[in-house]
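FORM 7B: Structural annotation worksheet

SECTION A. Query
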Amino acid sequence: MRYGTVHSFESLPGEPGGHAAVYAAGIEQIVRSEQLGFTYVNVTEHHATDDGYCPALMPVLAAVAMRTTTLRLSTGMLILPLHHPVRIAEEAAVVDVLSGGRLTLGVAAGYRELEFTVLESDYRRRGKRFRESLEVLLAAWTGEPFSYDGETIQLPEVVVRPTPLQRPHPPLWLGGGSDPALRRAVRYGAPCFPGATTPLPEVRATYARYRAFCEEAGRPSGGLVLPRLAYVGESVESARAVALPAITAMFDRYVTYGNPPEVREALHDWALLDEYVLVGDAETVAARVRELGELGVTDLLLQFAIPSLDPAHAMASMERFADAVALPAA
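SECTION B. Predicted structure
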């Protein structure tokens, strides 16, 4: 199993230090994660939020590229229909070149209608624009002349450069758990990528459908990438006490972004909450990680830097996790 950290760089209203402190602490944690032996850093996107949820993934990854040497840089997820695909092709290529070929581009169709209104993109046609944008990305990354005549995107003949260092293009992660989304992931050679608020029973069922579609298409499985909020403490009780207020704040945010209100019900019962998060002492978390491996998880992306959590607690939690699963430190 490969491991990564997740960062959304949120600063809840009224928090001391604001975003300058959040970004500084986040970058330091990312640098430390490479030293500890993590494989990925994953940054995730939203727009027009009062907590400043990271709206600019490529600048962040470019900054990280300058501070790291081996860490893979991933987006999970970039909301593709909100952007012009040629611009994303260009920015992704630049980040891939700057990083020496370390980018994985995770993209999704999005679900928060306000973002589409603010950024003047048609929410009702986001599925079609997502599909067409993927086709434009692949054509642009060839570095050869191409044109495109779709329902939502029309391009004259154009050449897009630079091209990514990774050929034919950076690996893709595609979000979505519906059958069409899973079939699309299979077609593009992408892994199964459930969301951070997908409970484990649903993850198991989604991954089974994905594997069936792989077999049907005669393609190998791309694996299972699972994002989770995480906190590793010195005891189960202390971990839960420290993590629960931050998890509660994050779940409240998820609901305001459009997730079903039912996710809040898990906050009152750790037997339910453990289906969504990874919290406990080192021994408990290591056992949970082994269970996730048995479920089929190939890449585990953990958000230690939960908004409103003290950055020192997040750093210590990440270091305890690295010890718990015996990461091969650099």
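SECTION C. Observations
The chain has a mean pLDDT of 96. The CA atoms of residues 214 and 220 lie 6 Å apart.

SECTION D. Sign-off
Analyst initials: ____
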